[in-house]
Amino acid sequence: MNEQALGAERVPLPDLTDVLRRPRGCNKTWTDSRRFPRIHANVACQAAPESTYRWVGHESQPQDVWLREMSRGGASFFHGAQFFPGERCTLCLPTGVCLHLEVIWCRRVAEGTFLSGCRFVKGDAAAPPASDLASAK
Amino acid sequence: MASASTDLEHAAPLYGADDDSRFFAVPLTILVGLAELRCDIYIQYAGASRKMLYKSANADLPAADAEKLRRRNVRHLFLRVEDRQAYDLAVGEALARPINDPSVQLALTVDQHREAFQCAMRGRSAAQVVTAAKQVGDDVLQIIKQDNFSVGMAVTLLDHDQCTFQHSCNVAIYSAALARSVGMADEDLKLLTSGGVLHDIGKRHIPTFILKKPGRLDDRERELVRQHPATGFRELAALGQLTWAQLMMAYQHHEWINGLGYPVGITGDEMHPWARICAVADVFDALTANRPYREAGHARSALQTMKDESGHFDKELFKQWTELVAS
Predict the structure, then answer these.
(1) Is-contact B198 B133, C-beta < 8 A?
(2) Hey, are the CB atoms on B251 and A84 less than 8 Å from each other?
(3) Predicted structure pTM score
(4) DSSP state, B258?
(5) Is the per-residue pLDDT at B133 higher than 80?
């Protein structure tokens, strides 16, 4: 019995390689120059943007993000609101470890979805309390 | 000497290698307005390896001769480096007198700021570039606001070379004229004009040999060029002196309405309105400028090219711009 006989339509899913490597049909336009080997993570985390730029409206609103991979130098993750170069945020891993990051590039990959590349920095501000992050879920 | 030779590198698309350090290029429009300038004027014809004496110091450059040159697509003439001081003085004196044509006044004003702005661009401090940009922006806005200012005439008379300063000024002028035509308030116009002057500040971190490269850029070079909106944004944002709208002009002026631009690839609604204005002005000036890899295009063909790529720009703004240029 085929799907058409059941009236079901096959929904085409995007090729994951396309989503990750060639977003919007363009060539790579970001600098992805981390020196260290990457670990592919694919894990849900939370990122709390610091108030680096007073104009950006998402300060201290923790966002759910999807960590793609990380290395000794930095990390990249998918998220829902645009980050800007130089913006800092605190990334909290499911293990409870919080890391301070500075956004180097941000690329729109789909409607309401962005991919950012960040480098680790020494955090000036203390990591947001775990309770804050939990309440945002 | 260093500053003069850098000027020459940027401003003169055609010159013999042995002449590099001895001459600087001056737009034809400006020379016509400097009746009292008494210097030898040189010309370099397309394909020639050296410059030739065109007018001696005691001869005038009548408007009819300039028109003939313009028809032969000669946009620049050349002065000797040792005449730089006399030239700067003549520009200052010309600006001190009332000038009927706002476009000529605009060309002279832009030229008067050239040295200070380029000096700031070569320096380390972005704050100095911002200060210089504000001065240029304020001065050109005064001229744009005159009743007899015509965008079409400005496009014809403004210099169009590959130099970042000239391009930045042209984009600021076009952006201001476009914003004014859609009813932007004076206070915002002031900010938008200086934002326009600063939109390419990130290019100061790109090596000159890449900006001037006559052939195709390789992948690494293209990647470097494509970083300039983000580099400029970071530099300006760190200063904390500009508004978000001005920062977005620097960051988003290469974004396209259809989402195929860079650095982020955002689509129409996500682009800041000031960045949309800047994008139209930026592409128009790029298409009408002399570039290392191609000759300058005519305004009409530039508009046609932009029309063919209509997915790149805000439709309403582009329509408005077309009408302005035709005026």
Answers:
(1) yes
(2) yes
(3) 0.79
(4) T
(5) yes
Average pLDDT, chain A: 72
Q: What is the pLDDT of residues A80-121, one digit of tens each?
A: 889 999 999 999 988 888 999 999 999 999 888 999 999 999
Q: Given a cut of 70, is residue A19 above it in pLDDT? A: no
Query: Nearest Cβ partner of A105 from B230, B237, B270?
Result: B230
| Cβ neighbourhood burial of B142 (10 Å; 0-12, 13-18, 19+) | middle
- The full length of chain A comes to 137
Strands B41-43 and A98-110: unpaired
Q: Facing residues of A64 across strands?
A: A46
The rounded distance, in Å, linking the Cα atoms of B175 and B318 is 12
State the DSSP string of A57-87: TTTT--EEEEEEEE-SSEEEEEESS---TT-
Q: Residue B5 pLDDT more than 70?
A: no
3-state DSSP call for residue B59?
coil
The amino acid at B304: Q
Q: Report how far residue B48's alpha carbon sits from residue B19's, in angstroms, rounded to the nearest whole number.
A: 12
Spell out the residues 6+ positions from residue B107 whose beta carbon is closer than 8 angstroms to its own. Answer: B27, B29, B30, B33, B157, B158, B159
The C-alpha angle with vertex A67 and arms to A61 and A71, in degrees rounded to 5, equals 120
B256 touches A: beta carbon within 8 Å? no
Its ipTM equals 0.77
Cβ-contact B64, B112 below 8 angstroms? no
Residue A111 to chain B, least CA–CA distance (Å)? 9
pLDDT digits (tens, 9 = 90+) for A33-78: 667 787 888 889 999 888 777 777 655 678 899 998 888 889 999 9
Q: Which site among A18, A22, A24 would you substitute to test the B interface, given the most B Cβ atoms closer than 10 Å to its Cβ? A: A24
pLDDT category at B163 given cuts 50, 70, 90 is confident
